[in-house]
Amino acid sequence: MTTHVTNVADILADIKKAQSVAISDPRLAGVLGLEKSTFGQNASATSGLTFYDLEVGAKLLFPVLTPLRNLIPRVSGKGGIQAAWRAITGINTSGMRIGVSGGNRGGVQAISTQDYTASYKGIGIETNVDFEAQYAGQNFDDIRALAGKAGLESLMIGEELMILGGNTSVQLGTTGTATLVGSTTGGTLAAQTWSVICVALSLDALVNGSVVGGIQASITRTNADGSSDTFGGGSAQKSASATVVTTGATSSISASVAAKIGAVGYAWFWGTTGAEVLGAITTINSALITAAATGAQTAASLPAADWSQNALAFDGLLYQALKPGSNATVVVQPAGTAGTGTPLTSDSAGGIVEIDAVLKNMWDLYRLSPDTMWVNSQEALNISKKIVAGSTTAAQRFVFETVQDAIGGGIMVRTYLNRFSMQGGSVIDIKVHPNVPAGTILMTTKTLPYPLSGVGNIIQIRTRQDYYQIEWPLRSRKYEYGVYSDQVLQNFFPPSMAVITNIGNG
Description:
Elements: H1 8-19, H2 67-71, E1 74-76, E2 82-91, E3 111-119, E4 121-130, H3 131-136, H4 143-165, E5 179-183, E6 193-201, H5 203-208, E7 218-222, E8 228-232, E9 242-245, E10 252-256, E11 265-271, E12 277-282, E13 286-289, H6 317-322, E14 329-332, H7 353-366, E15 372-375, H8 377-389, E16 415-418, E17 426-432, E18 441-444, E19 459-471, E20 478-491, E21 498-501
Parallel strand pairs: 1-19, 14-21, 15-17
Antiparallel strand pairs: 2-3, 4-20, 5-10, 6-9, 6-11, 7-8, 10-13, 11-12, 15-18, 16-17, 18-21, 19-20
């Protein structure tokens, strides 16, 4: 009988020594292929014995920009189907003289009043999560909570667009027939008879339209409960066809239509008669056509009706200013050169001619000054350029810091000085809004300068029921959520607003 004495310490030392030998040691070459790794790093991040380094929680990389919704006060309504109010808009409107003779009474003044109404509208959006999505998302994120959050944020984004440009009362009607001028240069149009059709667009249609996807006229939406709603997508009735003959192979066409009050964009269709295709969407009332249209939507597919109004929306700030009888200051820039339009004009003294004209008109008529100018990035850039370029001879003050790397390029005009106010000058903030279209400027006023006006908020959201969420009873293996509000936008004094539209880029 043989007795083996095992020294554990010696065995562990031998194992460590063996493991310290590199697998590529030449003494092991050719022995059962041990110079090759049994496992190696896989080239794919989602296959093989590879850890997937996924951070827990989805990153919410989308903008929720709602500056108007954030600024405008919200007040509770008191039932009914509409908000209604009355206003005294003028005193002694006939200019009655105030002098009186001895012992006699003075003349009787005339006072003007006006009634206002604004119908409440429901707004809402739905989302859902099926059971499998909830199972799959365990230990990663709360999918149901994300659905509720996404619903509220989507509603707020849509509400912002409606506060700015909802249109239930301004009918664009039929777009005017285009005026066409052909040229033998400037493009790649073939020699033929070209037909051009134009469609005026409200803000809703402009924001949701594209050359690739087309523009929206009548919309029929299927709802979460199986019902459906039909409403206007913001497009006016298309124009009649206008034709022009081109020659050669390098032709172009200058096209323009009469500007429509309420239109912030225009869709242009061209081609042979009866086969016109969407080729451009502009924010001025003209277009320079240089090549064949590349869109897919045909003018023939559009209904012969005006669908510019949306019966499910309330009037936003733009259309409360643009609708007839608002008495807001509205300026439409001249057509100018086709495709270029008429840009804003520097007064060569640090100001903009068109803006100053609007501000002067608001002071002359209503003795007030707006405090905010809402613009597109295009107009923000053009205003800055014109003010800076037009002020080269004006007195300026520069502040230099001692830090050597503190000088940066670029100049941004963030405010505008209104020279027409009783206090001798007031400052108007210039703010870039995500939904204000290029070619349009909206001016708003927070407070009236009239003592004892009885108007705390010139603009406010009046709600019959503010935001609420419903988790609907289960009717399938799917969680369904709706986020809603019932409200209307009130503007007690529309003349406190001003709009400049049809502004050319430049």
